[in-house]
Amino acid sequence: MNGPPDPETSMAAALDAAAAALLGIWESAREGTANRVSGAQLRAVMVVEQHDGINLRRLATQLDMLLSSASRLCDRLVAAGMLEREPGRFDRREISLHLTPEARRLLAELRADRQAQLATVLVGMSSEGRDALLRGMREFDESARQQQARSTSAPGASTGQGDLPDDPDRPGVPSGGDWPVDPDRQTRAVWAGPSGGAERSLGTTRDWPAGDPPVARTA
Fold first, then answer.
1. Distances (CA, A) of 121 to 111, 129, 150, 189
2. Is-contact 41 82, C-beta < 8 A?
3. Tell me: the pLDDT tens digits for 85-104?
4. Is this prediction's pTM over 0.85?
């Protein structure tokens, strides 16, 4: 208990301290999107980018959120012109999620800003240091992905039923399931794009709950 820390613990502490500058760059670039999406919404957009056509239940699991929280979050992203909802290819009762061109532009701007800031820092490093950093980060990324895969497949892994305490899109009243499609009530809706014009027309859609439709929330 009172002996010297093991090498892995010492390395983790050193990496935690050294990563502060990297995280600062990430946060600086994130602030550039704060007037358009909240932090929770940005995470959702990135998950949908990685898993195009993902359904709501899987998205909630990926974000470790309640299904009702993910539903409200997606409502706001649709209203902001960042997400499109379509009936699933194999099950018309299931809704699949896709990024809009506006969301892809937002992510491209975010990454361009991050990369420009990183390039400024890398100029001050030696070529050996840059090479070692890249090799280490690639190996770290691979190890982290393997750990995440093991955690996801382990018994008792998260099923998306736990709300994040600081989730700004947390709902007051739970709702149930993926946006269900009522086969006896076929309506037609046009989702508004970011400029207020029509973005996409869908043959089947979910009715909004009573009251005004959700408004996109910014951070």
1. 15, 12, 34, 48
2. yes
3. 987 666 667 789 999 999 99
4. no
